[in-house]
Amino acid sequence: MKNLGLFFLILLIAMSSCADRRNITRTDTTTSGIAEIAVDECFAPIIQEQVDVFGAMNNEALIIPIFTSENEAFNMFMNDSLRVIIATRRLTPNETQIIKERNQVPRTQKLAIDGIALIVNKANADTLITVSDLKRIMTGEVKSWKELNPNSKLGDISVVFDSPNSSTVRFIKDSICGGQALGENIKARSADSVKTTNLSDRTPNQQVIDYVAAVPDAIGVIGVNWISNPSDPKNLSFINSINVMSVSTEDKATAENSFKPFAAYLVLKKYPLTRDIFIIISDVKGGLPSGFVNFAAGERGQRIILKAGLYPANVPTRLVRANPTLKD
User: Which domains, ranges and CATH numbers included, belong to the chain?
Assistant: First the structure.
């Protein structure tokens, strides 16, 4: 009897242990489970909407976006803290090799074409600018609005970015300034360490908008999805608190040769400050990270991108069935 009692005790412990293991095993399918993703804060509004829609479609899935600077996002991704990142560059060969050495298979997919907007205060009448003048401002060669327009009533130019090592700073340095250092008048509204999962916080890009709206001499550099007008179904207007500059590649900016960052001008390359957005995954085994990537790059996710004023990598199409005219 004693041995029989010991047998049942061991059996009970084993069953309990199995039950505990079942309770802590994470369910992870393409439509269920929990997954964190790192997101360049430049794209916070549009990715938050994708996360919300994906969650509404899959009530057993929880995607937690961490909005931060591009540098910090890549640090988290390369440390294997999470398996999905949304940013404006591809993996370098060295980064790809590191991921493969972890027995993971990285995949990079273009998500959209983004525009970098230049925003100014409503009191600023100068809303046309050339790429060459933008470079002169960013390198510190031009420091006042009067140097661009002798009739301007404004003073020294105050340039603001979202964060010191953001993707917008990198774009201006590499694509506009040709690798030159930025001028001393360039300011960032936040530190690189800022990370948030809550867009109700005063995020760095929102701080840029607030600063420009309050300071007449300011010019802000910001992702266009932050200033798209959500109430305009045609995506042909921006928020009312600031003015959006038109940019020209010509020697002199005119209304005819300057363009705003509307989606059509992004894809046609008429607006010169454009870049690609990529979604990168290191876990392609069919779990929740893969499910979200497929959604973001699929028709529903791409429609959200189009609605936000960016140009989707995979343009959603609509099939129209035309009935032939019947003849007597």
Answer: 33-113+276-312 (3.40.190.10), 116-272 (3.40.190.10)
